């Protein structure tokens, strides 16, 4: 092959751009190389080695996420050697900790013992809280791997449940480091890092204290990027299963950044919120209010009917009556004292369409320009 | 914002002032933090409090409250004296530079130090850093605007940006961070007393005629109306007889609440349309229940002028209705029929009368929002404003002198109070306080104070104290904090129980009518 800016992946010639890794070239060419630790936009760590590929001329398999692409490189992404290596990595991951997604072994009594232990740790008799929404489980199915063949290792660290938002289940952590990348390189909150060494390695906050006593601001970026069940929203864990919900994309209703988010809906209730990845302006990131502050939507304190005050107390009214009362009084005040005796406060909380209607109503019907909102407050 | 949020990561130098970015715009702050830690951009923070973002700064200047015009003039003094200003940009794009130059001559770093407390050396270094940057971005928030000199402060920042040619370029700009999801949209949609949609002035007869034709009415008023901060006092004096309040809670968010409450109780008719029975709704004669964002379709416009879709995910509780539907029903009952099939129909009407939205439609923003101005269906939107020229043609420098805040500390009220938000709550808390976890993280109001000031008064962390101003008093828990400034206390305004706005001063900026929330004089006393 002549010197070009092309490389070959699985027999396909693909163009390289400066700074590309093998993974980036493959993804642009719609070739799927599985990843676990890779987090777009952050420094590749090559920690999990699930993305290893065979590069012609290289002595060992190389991680696609951190190996620079170079012209004339010839890569195979699913060669027998690659597949065997991935299976081995997956077996090791599945055999350490509480990976009870029913792929662990075929020996019934062994499985039962294992599951009973996990149930005790979890305080639940369900299968893994992220069953059906887990990258490790997906890959275990894809490569038909179980945790068989290795001595199962029990969880080394207890679960952390002492903050209101996030459960940290170290028994399911595969130490891929995505949460650390998300916290340090995406949100730059610098709250968590790798702690201890070797088999004792643990993701720690502030010298291994609970998140609530660290620099954590509960943005939940770590939960969103966790590929397994190690980090799960407290209110979602064992209460909401991914296949029970529908996602609706909308715009956050807190500050003016306008983050794009998915509302996860079950039985007419919003039960979870996640950021829309890869889309401006937030590219998947959210803050604690946007991600966790949605209980007001289904609050039992919401107003459900019009209220009319009589003798200092409210009573419920029909829309017919309430609208009639408001329209009648506004009309009489306008006709007696002029439109300028009425003021309208429209809202920075409602939609453009609704603000437009309020502005039209004020000027065309009330015949005044006395309209404002809380931009100043 | 003149530029986009993503554009912050293109800046070489970022100047943040009057914005507690990590708590009030957490996601936007990640762009700043990444620019610094991953791209080597330099950050200048000008803020009295030791807020989190100062940890990322190259220079942190700590001005006395209400001295913004002085330090900005001081920076410009340094930049012009050291010949660091962008003469090409000034010549080609601006006017009245000489007036500015003459005015800032008096603002030597030493003189500015006597006003602001910022050491002259620090001011000089920060000025050099900003001026020498190929692209410098200015981010500001309510710490700049909520002053009696709020308009002056903003114009001064614009002076500084123009002086260094930082307008209309990537990574530059003057970028106000808007605090509420659709405050940009409410302004764009004519929710202001002096303009129709798209900032068309109410005395612009062409715009008035266009509205009259579209709305099929005559006699639209052409005299500017009252601002919210004028309506409330006029309710007190009886000139305003009725208020129709949609989705706002002025009885927590307005300044000088005791006065505001008396004013609202004076009304003949108070109608409040909201999702909760807020402090303001409790005073109403009629309360109308509306849908929240998760129950409705429509659009919000974010702080970078990006118009984005809002989509219905769940049904509303009870009989709650769309805000637009309620308003239309009232109009219809008053004899002016207003009815629309859906929010998209309304959007199409508003796009027809609003030049900056004319090219936007629901299909175009189905996947990704567009930045206005977007005048035609083919137009790609405008991520960066003021590229070739300013809206008015040439950018005008305003020579602005510093003026002291309306209220200064004295023997009776010896401390300053400044107000703001905390990470875990939003505005008057009607939404965030429904989430237990957020309440657990930020359960109640507090008064943030330095260790030195607390020691001087013999108070300790966790003590309950009374904070009083000339307008009212509240009780709150003492929080000794490294964030605090000597001589100044900070109280978040979220909590109706200890409403900081019972203390704040309703003195207004003469042009924008914004209250001076960021400075007033108070005294603290032990016990309750």
Secondary-structure blueprint of this entry?
The complex is a heterodimer of chains A (377) and B (528).
Chain A: E1 6-9, E2 12-15, H1 22-28, E3 52-55, E4 62-63, E5 74-76, H2 80-95, H3 108-122, H4 135-142, E6 166-168, H5 178-186, E7 192-195, E8 202-205, H6 221-225, E9 231-233, E10 246-251, E11 260-266, E12 269-275, H7 288-292, E13 307-310, E14 313-316, H8 319-337, E15 342-345, H9 352-365, E16 371-372
Parallel strand pairs in A: 1-5, 15-16
Antiparallel strand pairs in A: 1-2, 3-4, 3-5, 6-9, 7-8, 10-11, 11-12, 13-14
Chain B: E1 13-17, H1 21-24, H2 26-39, E2 42-46, E3 59-61, H3 68-81, H4 87-93, E4 94-95, H5 97-104, H6 109-116, H7 120-132, E5 136-140, H8 142-145, H9 150-163, E6 174-176, H10 183-188, E7 195-196, E8 200-201, H11 205-215, H12 228-237, E9 242-246, H13 250-253, H14 257-265, E10 269-274, H15 279-282, E11 286-289, E12 298-301, E13 306-310, H16 323-333, H17 343-353, E14 370-371, E15 395-396, E16 415-420, H18 436-441, E17 446-449, H19 451-457, E18 464-468, E19 473-480, E20 488-492, E21 505-508, E22 515-516, E23 520-526
Parallel strand pairs in B: 1-2, 1-5, 2-3, 4-15, 5-6, 9-10, 10-11, 16-20, 17-19
Antiparallel strand pairs in B: 7-8, 12-13, 13-14, 16-23, 18-19, 18-23, 21-22
């Amino acid at each position: 092959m002549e010197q070009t800016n092309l490389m070959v992946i699985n027999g396909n010639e693909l163009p390289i751009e400066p700074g590309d890794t093998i993974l980036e070239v493959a993804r642009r060419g719609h070739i799927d190389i599985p990843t676990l630790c890779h987090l777009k936009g952050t420094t590749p760590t090559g920690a999990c080695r699930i993305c290893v590929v065979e590069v012609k001329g290289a002595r060992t398999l190389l991680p696609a996420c951190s190996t620079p692409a170079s012209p004339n490189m010839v890569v195979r992404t699913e060669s027998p050697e690659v597949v065997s290596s991935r299976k081995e990595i997956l077996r090791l991951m599945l055999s350490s900790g509480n990976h009870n997604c029913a792929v662990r072994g075929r020996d019934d009594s062994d499985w039962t013992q294992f599951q009973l232990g996990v149930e005790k740790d979890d305080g639940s008799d369900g299968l893994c809280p992220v069953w059906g929404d887990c990258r490790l489980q997906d890959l275990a199915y894809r490569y038909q791997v179980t945790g068989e063949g290795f001595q199962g290792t029990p969880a080394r660290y207890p679960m952390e449940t002492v903050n209101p938002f996030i459960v940290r289940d170290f028994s399911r952590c595969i130490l891929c480091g995505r949460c650390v990348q998300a916290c340090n390189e995406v949100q730059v909150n610098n709250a968590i890092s790798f702690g201890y060494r070797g088999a004792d390695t643990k993701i720690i906050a502030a010298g291994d204290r609970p998140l609530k006593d660290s620099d954590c601001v509960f943005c939940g970026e770590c939960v969103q990027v966790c590929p397994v069940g190690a980090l799960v929203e407290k209110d979602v864990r064992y209460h909401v299963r991914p296949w029970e919900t529908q996602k609706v994309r909308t715009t956050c209703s807190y500050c003016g950044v306008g983050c794009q988010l998915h509302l996860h809906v079950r039985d007419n209730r919003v039960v979870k919120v996640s950021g829309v990845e890869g889309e401006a302006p937030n590219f998947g990131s959210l803050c604690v209010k946007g991600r966790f502050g949605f209980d007001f939507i289904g609050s039992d304190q919401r107003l459900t009917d019009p209220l009319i005050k009589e003798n200092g107390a409210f009573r419920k009214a029909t829309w017919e009556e309430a609208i009639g009362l408001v329209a009648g009084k506004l009309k009489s005040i306008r006709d007696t004292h002029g439109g300028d005796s009425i003021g309208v406060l429209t809202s920075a909380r409602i939609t453009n369409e609704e603000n437009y209607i309020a502005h039209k109503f004020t000027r065309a019907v009330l015949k005044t320009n006395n309209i404002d909102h809380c931009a100043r407050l | 914002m003149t530029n986009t949020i993503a554009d912050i990561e293109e800046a070489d130098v970022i100047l943040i002032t009057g914005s507690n970015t990590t708590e009030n715009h957490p996601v936007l702050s990640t762009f700043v933090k990444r620019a610094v830690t991953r791209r080597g951009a330099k950050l200048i923070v000008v803020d009295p409090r030791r807020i989190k973002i100062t940890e990322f700064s190259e220079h942190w200047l700590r001005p006395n409250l209400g001295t913004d015009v002085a330090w900005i003039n001081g920076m410009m003094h340094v930049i012009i004296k050291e010949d660091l200003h962008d003469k090409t940009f000034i010549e080609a794009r601006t006017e009245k530079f000489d007036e500015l130059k003459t005015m800032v001559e008096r603002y030597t770093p030493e003189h500015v130090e006597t006003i602001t407390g910022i050491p002259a050396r620090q001011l000089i270094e920060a000025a050099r850093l900003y001026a020498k940057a190929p692209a410098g971005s200015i981010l500001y928030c309510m710490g700049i605007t909520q002053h009696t000199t709020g308009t002056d402060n903003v114009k001064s920042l614009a002076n500084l940006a123009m002086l260094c040619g930082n307008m209309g370029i990537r990574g530059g700009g003057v970028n106000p961070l808007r605090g509420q999801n659709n405050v940009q949209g409410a302004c764009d949609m004519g929710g202001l007393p002096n303009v129709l949609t798209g900032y068309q002035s109410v005395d612009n007869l062409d715009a008035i005629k266009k509205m009259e034709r579209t709305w099929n009415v005559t006699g639209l008023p052409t005299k500017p109306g009252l601002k919210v901060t004028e309506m409330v006092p006029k309710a007190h004096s009886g000139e305003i007889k009725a208020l129709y309040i949609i989705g706002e809670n002025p009885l927590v968010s307005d300044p000088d609440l005791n006065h505001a409450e008396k004013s609202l109780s004076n009304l003949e008719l108070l109608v409040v349309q909201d999702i909760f029975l807020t402090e303001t709704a409790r005073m109403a004669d009629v309360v109308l229940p509306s849908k929240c964002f998760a129950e409705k379709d429509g659009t919000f416009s974010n702080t970078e002028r990006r118009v984005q879709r809002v989509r219905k995910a769940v049904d509303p509780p009870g009989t709650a209705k769309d805000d637009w539907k309620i308003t239309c029903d009232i109009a219809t009952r008053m004899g002016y029929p207003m009815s629309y099939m859906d929010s998209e129909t309304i959007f199409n009407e508003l796009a027809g009368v609003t030049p900056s939205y004319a090219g936007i439609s629901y299909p175009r923003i189905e996947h990704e929002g567009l930045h206005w101005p977007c005048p035609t269906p083919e137009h790609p939107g405008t991520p960066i404003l003021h590229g070739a020229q300013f809206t008015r043609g040439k950018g005008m420098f305003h020579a602005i002198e510093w003026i002291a805040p309306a209220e200064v500390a004295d023997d009776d009220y010896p401390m300053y109070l400044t107000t703001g938000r905390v990470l875990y709550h939003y505005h008057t808390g009607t939404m965030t306080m429904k989430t237990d976890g957020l309440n657990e993280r930020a359960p109640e109001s507090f008064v943030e104070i330095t260790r030195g000031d607390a020691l001087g008064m013999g108070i300790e962390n966790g003590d309950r104290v009374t904070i009083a101003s000339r307008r009212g008093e509240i009780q709150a828990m003492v929080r000794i904090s490294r964030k605090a400034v000597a001589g100044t206390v900070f109280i978040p305004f979220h909590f109706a129980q200890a409403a900081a706005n019972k203390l704040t001063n309703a003195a207004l900026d003469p042009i924008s009518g914004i209250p001076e929330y960021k400075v007033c004089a108070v005294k603290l006393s032990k016990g309750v």
